Amino acid sequence: MPDPVALRPLIRDLHAAVVDLQARPIPPAWGRLLVLLALLAAGGIGFWQLQAWPLRLAAALLVAVAETLLLIATHEACHGTLLGRPRLELVLAALISWPMAWPWFTYRLLHRLHHRWNGRDQRDPERIQHQQPGSWRRLVLAGGAGLILRTLQEALRLQAQHPALRRALLLDGLGIVLVQALILLLVIQHGHLVAYALGWLVVERVAGALLQLRGAIEHWHLWQPQSHPLLSQLYGSRTVAVPNWLNGWLGGLPHHSAHHAFPAIATGRLPQATARLQVVLRAHGYPPLPWCQGYGEALKQLG
């Protein structure tokens, strides 16, 4: 284990490399949000207006893709990097999450613990326990229901140590029940309960599978303590090389090493942060960050 004093120049240089990227004002992602909300609305209207079930299924898939990307945007809201207006981000994140029964306020607190504990503390609420070849497929099949249940399970497990989780669970519970009750009241009044249930199931399956897959790609086989907490975050996360436009739609998550080490960096600046951090690590004789060229190669690394 290297001497902590010997690590100081490296840690200092890593912070210095990205300090300006954290200090600038957050560029609001209104354009992305409005496009996704428009796609969500178009898919929803199509699902209710179209008569042919193949077309309705296509509309439901459009809703699922839009909702997936919106839920990814709520991850940015966890860190205050979506709009640069934290209170507004909280409201938007809840409105996006609660219709799908996603306990966002609970997840937000757990995710902060994940950023502290990834690679260092086995209590990490987002740690993937079983990583045998092919086991990631079970996560994908678990889908959104699996994500929701695991979030609730981890919150209940950690609530004694972190009492704020109890308040978050209560807030999410009340919000989800209220939103679902209002939606069910409307669909029952119009005689569309079965159609709503089927549409919700399609979105849950597709969005949940994509989000589970994303989570597996980010940390698969990388959970290992390093000689410094900052290095644990950098080397405990995977960077996926994608075009900058795709990085934007995916909320900066392809540059997961840089994000995990410096979560205050806005989405559009993460590619630049990754490049700078790689230069510093190389200058100090450290290996490059975990990396794969595109999501095709990332899937192969899952095994």
Secondary structure: number of strands: 2
C-alpha end-to-end distance: 30 Å
Name the average pLDDT.
94
How is the main sheet built? 2 strands, parallel
| Tally of discrete structural domains | 1
N-to-C SSE series?
HHHHHHHHHEHHHEH
Number of helices: 13
What fraction, in percent, of the residue positions are helical? 55-70%
Secondary structural class: mainly alpha
Strand content: under 5%
Pick out the low-confidence regions. Answer: none
CA gyration radius, whole angstroms: 20 Å
Shape: globular
Sheet with the most strands: spatial strand order: 1-2
Core attributes:
single chain, 303 residues, mainly alpha, two-stranded parallel ribbon, 13 helices
Q: How would you sum up this structure, described in words?
A:
This protein is mostly helical. The chain has one domain. The chain is 70% helix and 1% strand. It has 13 helices and two strands; from the N terminus they run αααααααααβαααβα. A two-stranded parallel ribbon has the order 1-2. The mean pLDDT is 94.
Layout of secondary structure:
Elements (H helix, E strand, L loop, with lengths): L3 H20 L6 H20 L3 H27 L6 H12 L6 H14 L18 H23 L5 H26 L3 H27 L9 H7 L3 E2 L3 H6 L6 H6 L8 H14 L7 E2 L1 H9 L1
Parallel strand pairs: 1-2
Helix pairs in contact: 1-12, 2-3, 3-4, 3-8, 5-7, 6-8
Q: Could you write a compact summary of the structure shown?
A:
This protein is an all-alpha fold and 303 residues long.
